[in-house]
Amino acid sequence: MTTMPDRNRRTQAAPDTRPPADERPTEDTDLFDYDAELRPHNDHLRAAARIGPRERVLDIGCGTGGTTREAARAAVAGSALGVDVCARMLDRARRLGHDQGLTNITYAQADAQTHRFPPTHFDTCISRFGTMFFADPVAAFTNIGRALRPAARLVLLVWQDRDRNEWATAIRRTLPDPTTAATPPTGGPDAFSLADPTVTERILTAAGFTDVTFTDVHEPVYYGPDSATAFEAVRRLKEFDDRLAGLDPATAEQARTRLRATLAAHETDTGVYFDSHAWLVTAHRP
Ligand SMILES: C[S@@+](CC[C@H](N)C(=O)[O-])C[C@H]1O[C@@H](n2cnc3c(N)ncnc32)[C@H](O)[C@@H]1O
Q1: Which CATH number does the domain 29-162+177-221+276-284 belong to among 3.90.180.10, 3.40.50.150, 3.40.640.10, 3.10.450.50?
Q2: Which residue CA neighbors atom 13 of ligand 1 most closely?
Q3: Which stretches does the entry tag as region Disordered (predicted)?
């Protein structure tokens, strides 16, 4: 676990979770950089996944593919398949994989809920915050389970409750009437839909998984080297963008001003950080 930097203390020692140079954007992109945001979380995912050199790995909701590249490096004589619905993220994932000389990765633009994966094919399925958005999670995890060989492992990171995630509550507070923002019920397609271990265990068990475990992951999320960069990053987050789009110009500008102040209050010597709590979820296919 990493201790959060105190707010407003630029001189205090802060964690340095910035991504290595070959994972930093080398081009202008308007995609949110989850690889930079979630780097400390990879240590937990990697340690739990323990990907072996010959494994076939499935990465659900892989985005721009940071975790797929890590899996492919570990599965040096195996392979990694990254699946995402977003073509632009996959374009970037393909480019970074190519630039880093990885030849054992493929990507599919597909909905993991219904995509026809090769049956009983994969040894391990990983996902870093890519499995919370399923309209029918039992059907989705049942579909994913069919792609896994017997005794294969499922290793997921999912967010705990919104109230335990400072990044979500702080950003939401910058929006007008945050309490009236629609909050889908648990189990619906929402970043916090797998936050309740009881609900998630029920979903995974109904989908045919066994040995479901939950481990608290308490790490900071990184939004950029300074508050100006973090401001541009947050504007790429769908929730913030969607909410601003519906506002009159003056109200939207007030929200942006509040966001700038919030980000400035979270700026440290090594960047802008917020606290977060996730669950590392593991399960097996029987
Ligand atoms: C929070 S992002 C995480 C991306 C990536 N796992 C990472 O950590 O960098 C969630 C990702 O899940 C993808 N996603 C959401 N629903 C999906 C679905 N039904 N099938 C495949 N991908 C999905 C989104 O397009 C998005 O890229």
Answers
A1: 3.40.50.150
A2: 61
A3: 1-28
